[in-house]
Amino acid sequence: MEQNIILIGSKLIIDGFIYHKSRDKPELEKTFWDCTRLRKKEYRARAISTLARDGEVPRILKGPQHEPFHSHAPDQDECEAEVVKYSVKNEAQRQPERPPSQIARDATRDLSQRVLARLPERENLKRSMRKVRRRHLPANPRILDELLDLPERFTITFTGKKFLIYDSREVEDVGRVIVSATKRNLLLLRESDVWFLDGTFKVSPSIFTQLFTVLGIVKRHQNFAALPLVYALLSSKETRQYSTALQAIKSAAEERSDEELEFLELIGSNIVL
């Protein structure tokens, strides 16, 4: 009889039973697994498989059908809940642009009430996704001098477009100024007759003084709205920092690209982006 085997991280599901990895024995080419209820001291059931490698589903050498101590019944609902918990964390890591609430909503939309009852509260599910994402982020610098060159992943958008347009790290007597915007936002800003400047202090990272935002007038359907188009982190409130940020925006907005003509045609057609 074919077994239903699912490997999710450090857990192994066999025919409705859930096992945690206990230890690998490379010299024996085997991995040993403990039933989840063994860790709760309810049962003594264990499983043995071929050595588990890099997400490959191992071959079961000893499982529930061989285990005399596995006296509790399989629980398919609990197994499905485990798969959902693993999948939302994996999705949060794979698509960092998606809000955890959206991932959780999509993953639980079609689940039965029995499976939903086995899942953590929605807030706990979202917290687990944020925790997974933090593991793959560099440590936050404690002082401005610790902030060196920005990692490439933070200089582009999720679609691979350039986002960082200026960083004053190598410029003397300016302080730190980091300016970010997409090319399309810069084109929208250039088409705007009025710019609005806004400095926000409460949401700024602790090593910076403020988040400086430039808004432009953008036509949406038949209406006009002021939308944030450029973001800058400033390390002080000095005039030279504002001047540096605005000059960087001006220079970036004046750069030409093959994308520009096509985009300006879209603006002229009143297409909402």
TrEMBL record:
It comes from the Eukaryota. This is Uncharacterized protein. The lineage of its organism: Eukaryota, Metazoa, Ecdysozoa, Arthropoda, Hexapoda.
